[in-house]
């Protein structure tokens, strides 16, 4: 029912968008860490300034129009202008996005930024969904994803055996969790809290903001820093929307998006520190530091499989080519 309502609401919005000559962009998103929400708001401010008020952005936050997958489908169908979703979810729409769900793809946050800011790497990825009615225009750091649990703490790989772990709707992440011995359950982020509370899930995997913004720290008290992935958030725009904009307006949209990413970088580090502090002091979350090499070894078969993946392996090689330099 929520999805049907969202479609009807979006259809009405699309109609008003046409009447307004595509000058008000509808941007819907699900739950977000504070710096990401601020960066998306900054995008609207910058775009309005760059177009001298010709283009404004109307926001629909907190899953008002549906979960992430529903929002992507609305953008894809031209019922919504823009959204921001996890790159992991986009694997279902373009296989190349699955590369971001590969465990231990990035050596560090610095490596992550180096790759994500490289147009030669990112342009083909952003455009890979063009035939499906949408393209990526920028990214936001979504942190390092790690496991957290309601009851049983994870101190080693063996502790994951048999646990029901929520993952994004990504075949790559599902495979990773299976190799680690757990039972992956793909579900929308807005279902996770109740599922943890009721025992439908034993745990999940996400960054520290899931503990605070999504309030998972109320029902999950163990957070294990295995830092298995760094999956970016991707800002998407409908190709139908782009087609209604002039070349100058299109450039303004792209430039404003990139500038909002730079703004996001300035906020991210301090916000992560604050989320961790709040999780510990307010909710009593225990942070665990396991032997990461054990987790890396358990998922090694994924890298052999990746070599046979014509969609993802070229992107993997390009990202690894700008990896951190190791000391001799």
UniProtKB/TrEMBL annotation:
Query: Gene3D superfamilies annotated for this entry?
Result: Bacterial extracellular solute-binding protein, family 7
* Any Pfam family matching the protein: DctP
Q: Which SUPFAM superfamilies match?
A: Periplasmic binding protein-like II (SSF53850)
GO CC annotations, alphabetized: outer membrane-bounded periplasmic space
Say yes or no: keyword Signal present.
yes
Mind telling me which CDD domains this protein's record contains?
PBP2_TRAP_SBP_like_3 (cd13671)
- The secretion signal range is 1-19
The molecule here is called Uncharacterized protein
């Amino acid at each position: 029912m929520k999805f049907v309502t969202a479609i009807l609401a979006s259809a009405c919005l699309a109609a008003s968008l046409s009447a307004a000559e595509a000058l008000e962009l509808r941007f819907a998103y699900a739950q977000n860490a504070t710096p990401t929400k601020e960066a998306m708001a900054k995008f609207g401010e910058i775009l309005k300034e760059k177009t001298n008020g010709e283009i404004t952005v109307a926001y629909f936050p907190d899953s008002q129009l549906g979960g992430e997958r529903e929002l992507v489908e609305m953008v894809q169908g031209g019922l919504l202008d823009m959204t921001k979703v996890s790159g992991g979810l986009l694997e279902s729409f373009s296989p190349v996005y699955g590369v971001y769900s590969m465990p231990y793809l990035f050596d560090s946050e610095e490596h992550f930024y180096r790759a994500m800011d490289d147009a030669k790497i990112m342009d083909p990825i952003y455009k890979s969904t063009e035939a499906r009615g949408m393209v990526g225009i920028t990214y936001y750091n979504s942190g390092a994803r790690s496991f957290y649990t309601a009851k049983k703490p994870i101190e080693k790989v063996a502790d994951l055996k048999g646990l029901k772990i929520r993952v994004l709707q990504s075949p790559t992440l599902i495979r990773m969790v299976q190799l680690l011995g757990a039972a992956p359950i793909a579900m929308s982020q807005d279902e996770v809290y109740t599922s943890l509370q009721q025992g439908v899930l034993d745990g999940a995997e996400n960054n520290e903001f899931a503990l605070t913004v999504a309030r998972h720290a109320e029902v999950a008290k163990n957070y294990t820093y295995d830092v298995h992935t760094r999956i970016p958030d991707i800002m998407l725009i409908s190709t139908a929307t782009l087609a209604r904009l002039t070349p100058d307006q299109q450039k303004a949209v792209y430039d404003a998006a990139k500038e909002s990413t730079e703004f996001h970088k300035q906020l991210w580090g301090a916000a992560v520190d604050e989320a961790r502090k709040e999780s510990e002091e307010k909710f009593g979350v225990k942070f665990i530091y396991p032997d990461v090499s054990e987790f890396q070894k358990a998922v090694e078969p994924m890298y052999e499989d990746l070599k046979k993946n014509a969609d993802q392996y070229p992107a993997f090689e390009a990202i690894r080519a700008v990896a951190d330099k190791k000391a001799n």
